[in-house]
Amino acid sequence: MVEEILRKIVEDKDFDQIQVSVLHSENSLTRFANSIIHQNVNETHIELVIKGVIDKKIGNIKTTSFKDVDETLKKLKKITKLQKPNPDFKSLPENKNHKTINAFYKETYESTPEERAENVKTLVETAHERDIESVSGAFNTAYTKFYIMNSLGVDKNFEATTASLSTNVTSKTGYGYADFTSRNVKDFNFAGLGNEAAERCIMNENPRSIKPGEYEVVLEDYAVGTIMIYLCFMGFSATDYQEKRSFMCGNIGKKITGDVTIRDDGLDETNFAMPFDFEGVPKQDVPLINEGVAENVVHNSYTAGKENKESTGHAILGSDKPFPTNLFFKPGDSNKEEMISETKKGLLITRFHYVNPIHRIKTIITGMTRDGTFLIENGEIKYPVKNLRFTQSIFEALKTVELISKETKLEGFSWLGGGVRTPKLKLGKFLFTGTTEF
Amino acid sequence: MDLIDEALEIVNKEGAYGDIRIVERQRENIEIKNDKIERLENIFDKGFGIRVLLNGAWGFASSSRMEKDEVRKKARLAIKIAKASSKLKKKDIKLSETKVYRNTYKTKIKKDPFKVPTEEKIDVLMECVNRMNKEKIALRMGDMQILRERKTFASTENAFIDQEITEVGGSITAMAAKPGDIQRRCYPTSFGGDYHTEGYEFIEAMDLVGNSEKIADEAVLLLDAKQCPSKNTDLVIDTSQMVLQIHESCGHPTELDRVFGTEANYAGTSFLTLEKLNNFRYGSDLVNITADATLPGGLGTFGYDDEGVKAQKTYLVKEGIFSGYLTSRETAYEINQESNGTMRADGWSKFPIIRMTNINLMPGDYSKEELIEETKEGLYVETNKSWSIDDKRLNFQFGTEIGYTIENGELKDLVKNPTYTGITYEFWRNLVAAGNDWHIWGVPNCGKGQPSQSAHVGHGVPTAKFENITVGVGKW
Question: Which of A102, A169, A387, A435 has the fewest CB atoms within 10 Å of its CB?
Fold first, then answer.
C-alpha cells in the first residue's frame, strides 16, 4: 500500500527529479520516578516527506495525510516553482547496492506495556535492596520502518527496532546513574542496571566540596559519549565545514588532538547499523580523526555535489545537513582500575549534564558533572565530591589523553536513532570553573 | 466529533477519567542562506492522543491515522497501558477539581501570515542577506516560520474546547570568520529569533531589513575585539539575554513536576523544594516574576491548557520571595491547590506535562542608558550564545554574542565571547535595578520530557543590572 503511493509519486513527470520517503514509527515509553510508573505512552507516527526538483529549484513538503497525494504534489509544485535555481544542487543520488543488515528483533517489536512494567519493577526492586530513597528512569522500545524512493531508481526500505533504558537512583545525599541500549530487548539486564545505579548512588553519598581548578580526569564511557556527540555538533558535518563554522576548517591533514581515532561506520553492527542513509545511499566507514589527524567530514548528496564528491551516506531525514550517526572512538588497552591507579590528583567523572558549546572552532564547551563525581589521590578514590562546572576545549583535553580503555560501551544518540561506541578515558588536564551545592 | 465520541465512550465504559486531543498543525518554513533559498517547506501534521487515568495510574496512546478503527484501538491501548502502569504504584493519582469549559479560543491577528504571499516573505529575507554581504562575512542567513495549530480537547468530564493558535517568528544572522575564529550576530535574537502569537504584522514590526547591516558590521568587529576580561564586576544584561536567564533559572525550577522528581532522570529536579514556598528569598525586593498565559502576543499565550484548565496569571516570585509553582491538576492536588493551567503537550502525539507559559520579570523605571550611566565599572552583554545549568537549577553559566566593558557610566571596549556564571538565588538577590524596556520574547524550542517534547514559551523581560557577578569564565 505504502509502496504503491510512493511509486505513483516518483513517477510524477512535472518534476525533473523527485524523492519520497515514509517513516513509520511505533514508539512506546514507560517513564518512572519516585519508584513508580508516572507516564506510560505509545505513539504511532507515519509521515510522508517529499523533495521535488524543477530546474534546480528545490521544494520540500511533509505531511501525515496520505489521503490526497495529488493535492500534496500540487502544493509541492507550487512551492518548488517559487524557489530560485540552486546552482550547488547537482543531483539526487542514483541507485547503488547496499549490504544487508539485520536490525529487526521480534522480541523488541512485540514488547508489551505489561512486560515493560515488569522489567521496570525488577530494576526498581533491585535498586531498593540497598539503602536508597528513589528510582527514576525511562524505558523505551521502538520500531521503525523507513521507505525511500526517487525518480533515479532508488527503491529501498529498512526496518529496525531499538530499546533503551536510563535510570537514576537517589538517596538522601547520593545520586547514581546507569543506562543501556540495544536493538534487542533481550540483551537487557534490568536487575544489573538497577544495581549499577544504586551502587554508584551509595558510593556518592555525603559528597564534599572541592575547589575548582585544573585536574586529571578519568571519564566513564557515559561522559566520553557526551563529548563525542558535541564534537559532532561542532564540526563533523560537511554543511558546517562548507559554511566555515566547523573546527575541521583549515585543519584537514593536521594533528589536532592526541593519539585518538574517531570514525563513523554505519555498517558496523556493534553500533546501530543501517544499510543506507535517508537518501538511500549506502553507509560506509569514514575516518574523521585518525591518530589525532583531522581527516574527513561526512556528506549527503547535496554537500558532496557542491565539492564534486560522492556522498558518504550521511543524509538525515527532513534535514539538509548531513550528520554522523554511528560513531566509534577507537579503544586502547587500559581499564578503569589502571586509570585510577595512574592518577595522582584527579576526578572520576560518571557523566556530564547540560553541555553546550561556547566556541565551536576552539571546541570549548561547558557543562556540569552529575550522578557520581569522586576525588582520586595517589591512585585511589578518596571520597565523593559535589558537582563541578567545567569549561574546556575538547581538543585541548584530548591532547592530554594518557589512557584509553579496551572495553567500549554503546551510548544512544536518540534524536537521530544512532549511537556512539566509546571507551573510558584518562586525560591529563581538564579545567573545572565552578561548583554547586550538591 | 465522531472520533471523539468513539474514544470517550470506550473510556467511559471502563469508568475511567479520559481525554482526547485532536491536533492539526500547518507550518511554513523559509530559510535563506547567503544568496540561496536553503529551505522552502510546507508541513501538515495531524493526529490524536488519548489519555486515560484508570486504577490510579496513567495510560496514553496516540496516532497520526485519523480513522475510527485506529481511535478505538488506541483508546483500548491507553486503557491497557494504564492498567500496566498501576502495577508499580504507591498510591492512586488524583486530579484537583477544575471548572469544566465548553468554549473556543482564537489568537487575535491583523494580517493572516498564511495569506501573505511566500514570494513577499522571500523578498524580505533576500534583501536582508544582500545587505549583510560584507567582507569577512562567511555566512548570511534569514528565516521565517509560521505555524497554525488547531486543537480540540474533550474529556469524560464533559469539557469540549476548540482552539486556533497562530504563531509567527523569524531572525537574521551574520557570521564573520577568520582563521581560528568565528563570531556571530543575530537579530532580533539568536536560535531562530523572536516569536509571538500574532499575525504577519509582528514580522513587519521587527524591521529585519533595517537591522541587517548593523549586525553584519558588529560580527566583523567582534573578530578583532578583545577577549572578555575575567573578574567579578557589575553586569548589565540586555533584555535579549534576560530571556534565557529567566527561562533557565526561574521558569524551569518552578515546574512542580520537576520538584516532585518526575524529570529526575532527564533534565533534573529543582532547588525550589516545597518547604521554600512563601518563605525563601529567591531574589532582591525588586524581583517580581509572573507566569501569565493571558499576555497578548506571548508565545506561551492560549485559551486553555491541555487539561482544559483556563489560562491564567500567577506570581512565582513576589518582592523577591518565592511564592508559586507552575502546576497541573495532578501536582496541584498534592499541594491542596487548583491547577494554574500549565499542562501542554508537543502536538497530538505526546503526553501533556507542565510547561512554562509566559514567565515574566516585571520592569523597573530605568532606561537602559540610565542603567549603564549609573555603573562605574562593569560589563554590558547582549544576545544569548550558550547556556548551561545544573540539574537542580543552581549553578548556571551563560555566554552571549557581544559585550562591552563599562567605565564611568559609558560603554568602552567591545569584547568577544562574554560569559558569566553564578548560583541562581545569589544572582537574583544581586539584582539592583530593572529597566523599562520590557519586551515579550518567544522561545520556540524549550526542551523537556521523555520522549523529548519541544514547547513554545514566552518571556516578558527588561534589561537589568546585577552587582558582583563573575564574568569571563575559562581559558582563552
Answer: A102
